[in-house]
Amino acid sequence: MRLNLGCGFNKRDGFVNVDIGDHCAPDMVHDLELVPWPWDDSSVDEIYMSHVLEHLGPDTASYFAILREMYRICRHDARITIVVPHPRHDDFLHDATHVRAITVEGLSMFSHKNCEEWVAAGNANTPLAFIAEVDFEIVDSEIALEEPYKSKFDLDVLSKAELIQAIKQYNNVIKETKIVLRAVKA
Which of 107, 37, 89 lies closest to 66 in space, CA to CA? Predict the structure, then answer.
């Protein structure tokens, strides 16, 4: 099974398209903040969430519950693709329904391997994978640059070092981030 969670009007062929309301005619109506989700344990091969996760889990407990449900329904090696607005882009900042920033670094804290390494090294990173009882490995991530940074970088007018500096200093450099996770189960 493949789920397109929070599909809105962006349906995906070969997926069960799920949304909170019937206004967009999803295949299934479900509020993702209501747990447990209506899918069986280890029944999902792929989850796609585009501009959804930043709207969910306004407090830590509900956010962890959502991640636990995602983990519960995924099979070992299931692919989870998450696309979110960059937290320093106006698209994120101006939408009052966004309840949390989602970053590559933040999601990396839900990896057992990372948490084990941090604990062994005595790092201060919070071992969220242990606390939330999930294990997601980041497989890939990519950023979509906002104009004029994209064009300047593509034309080699802006070097990689200059781009990195701009990302650190300014808002509206990265428009969105795509993060691909893998569910790791024993």
Answer: 37
